[in-house]
Amino acid sequence: MFSHIQIYIMSLINKLRMDKTVFSIGTLEEQGDDREYWASKTPEERLQALEFMRQVMYGYDPDTPRLQRVFTIAKCAQR
Questions:
Q1: How many CB atoms are located within 10 Å of the residue 5 CB?
Q2: Helices 43-58 and 4-15, interaxial angle, to 10°?
Q3: Distance CA 50, CA 27 (A)
Q4: Domain ranges of the chain
Q5: Sign of the C-alpha dihedral, residues 34, 38, 49, 22?
């Protein structure tokens, strides 16, 4: 069963799909309007886009097990 967070992230990924009809390729010398675009977005929208890019780069699978917590008992020296 999916948690509320997993459902939210999956809906976010679907909502933030790239519109390939407006995609263009340019050179590094060309001045882009990225700064104006991101300045027009709310902080929440910027964080959503950042999270989407993180998931695209590193993958996201809600069924992947998480890292296990490991506890170690350390013995203190007796005085």
A1: 9
A2: 90
A3: 23
A4: 1-20+29-79
A5: negative
Model pTM score: 0.44
pLDDT digits (tens, 9 = 90+) for 2-49: 677 777 777 777 777 767 777 777 787 877 778 888 899 999 999 989
Question: Which residues make Cβ contacts (< 8 Å) with residue 40, sequence separation at least 6?
Answer: none
The predicted-structure confidence for 59-77, as pLDDT tens digits, reads as follows 776 666 666 677 777 788 8
Tell me the C-alpha distance between 17 and 45, whole Å: 14
* Residue 70: CB atoms within 10 Å: 5
Which has the closest alpha carbon to 49: 65, 61, 64, 37?
A: 37
Distance CA 48, CA 65 (A): 23
Q: What is the DSSP letter of 22?
A: G
